TrEMBL record:
PROSITE patterns linked to this entry: ODR_DC_2_1
Required cofactor(s): pyridoxal 5'-phosphate
Lyase is among the record's keywords: yes
Pathway assigned in UniProt: Amine and polyamine biosynthesis; putrescine biosynthesis via L-ornithine pathway; putrescine from L-ornithine: step 1/1
Protein name: ornithine decarboxylase
N6-(pyridoxal phosphate)lysine found at: K47
Annotated Gene Ontology cellular component terms: cytoplasm
Organism of this sequence: Chelatococcus reniformis
Length: 381
């Protein structure tokens, strides 16, 4: 917890669970990424935390933006980003949304199949745009990530040249290749195999007379939770070595899409203990219920994939395992049960707890007031 957040919480009026994000940490993170990969453009993943204050700060620092919808595109524009600094990175887009993005000046689009290319081709013809670029996302296994991504996005690498050639034939610029090595990727070498795959797509396209320009290295850069993570500089060095290994002296343009790594450690949630109980007199494991759960912003505890550091005012006392759960009337609203969380034995109803590393993917997952509990309040300082 930064001194700025500590001071904010000391003077805060009680109004339920809240997220507090320190912009100075976001600034430091952006600078760290820029130094680690100085020849790579940063496209902040807006979905991680779309707070206008965060976007304005990053736009002022020179960041580009990875967006997944027209709403996110508009947020980036409102923050001061020019359209050429915005990528429509979702591979599943309505054609009318592509049209709107083109009308707003966006020209960079992600695809992973020929049908998506067709939509962009028709939208370009409708708007009269002449400089649209597409990059093809390819599947990556995500080995080593705490949250490997599914097969929902991306195509087989052998299919990518066909997709890009189709774009080329429609008059679009076949710009490059994209991949994602998995969220919360703690293996700095994970990009090596993905870049080998990307270079093979570059060669296959070149044999067809199509010369790609860009590799989108995706996200996956971790935030620190309970486990230690490598420094950003270690990722930068590993990625640069892999680029040299697989592309030689013809290193393509590169971009990265940090989200969690940009804002995760900049925020924490203050919550309150609502109930401490047991299910039977013989039960040795307590249930600790907070006033925030999966539906209030902690959706990434699904399958207990992300384990947040939790601080209490009683951390110097003896600890014992407990089941940690949220306040709603949904049995799925349990945060940690398979691997119980160790909390102080003395923890009581009304105690405040601090859930650290929650600057990413919390407010964006709490938009619906399920059971009447309001969406997570957010304070950007």
């Amino acid at each position: 917890m930064t001194s700025r957040i500590r001071e904010f919480l000391r003077n805060r009026r009680e109004d339920g669970p809240c997220l507090v994000v320190d912009l100075e940490v976001v600034r430091e993170n952006y600078t760290t990424f820029a130094k680690a990969l100085p020849d790579t453009r940063i496209f902040y993943a807006v979905k991680a935390n779309p707070a206008p204050e965060v976007l304005r700060l990053l736009a002022g620092l020179g960041s580009c933006f990875d967006t997944a919808s027209v709403v996110e595109i508009q947020l980036a524009l409102d923050a001061g980003a020019a359209p050429e600094r915005i990528s429509f990175g979702n591979t599943i887009k309505k054609e009318r949304d592509i049209v709107r993005a083109l009308e707003l000046g966006v020209r960079l689009f992600a695809v992973d199949c020929q049908a998506e290319v067709d939509k962009i081709g028709r939208a370009v013809a409708q708007v009269g745009a002449r400089d649209a670029k597409v990059f093809c996302r390819v599947l990556c296994d995500g080995a080593g990530a705490e949250w490997p991504l599914s097969r929902k996005f991306g195509c087989d690498p052998q299919m990518a040249p066909d997709v890009l050639e189709h774009a080329h034939r429609l008059g679009l610029e076949a710009y490059g290749v994209s991949f994602h090595v998995g969220s919360q990727q703690r293996n700095t070498e994970a990009w090596d195999g993905a870049l080998a795959m990307a270079s093979s797509v570059f060669r296959a396209c070149a044999e067809r007379g199509i010369f790609l320009s860009m590799v989108n290295l995706g996200g996956g850069f971790p935030a620190k939770y309970l486990k230690q993570v490598p420094a950003v500089g270690a990722y930068g060095n590993s990625i640069f070595q892999a680029l040299r290994r697989h592309f030689g002296n013809r290193i393509p343009e590169t971009i990265i899409e940090p989200g969690r790594g940009m804002v995760g450690n900049a925020g924490l949630i203050q919550a309150e203990v609502v109930l401490v109980s047991k299910k039977s007199d013989e039960d040795r494991v307590r249930w600790v219920y907070l006033d925030i759960g999966k539906f209030g912003g902690l959706a990434e505890t699904m399958d207990e994939a992300i384990r947040y550091p939790i601080r209490t005012p009683r951390d110097s006392d003896a600890k014992a395992p407990c089941v940690l759960a949220g306040p709603t009337c949904d049995s799925a609203d349990v945060l940690y049960e398979k691997d119980p969380y160790w909390l102080p034995v003395s923890i009581e109803i009304g105690d405040k707890v601090l859930i650290e590393g929650t600057g990413a993917y919390t407010t964006t997952y709490s938009a619906v007031a399920f059971n009447g509990f309001p969406p997570l309040k957010s304070y950007i300082i």
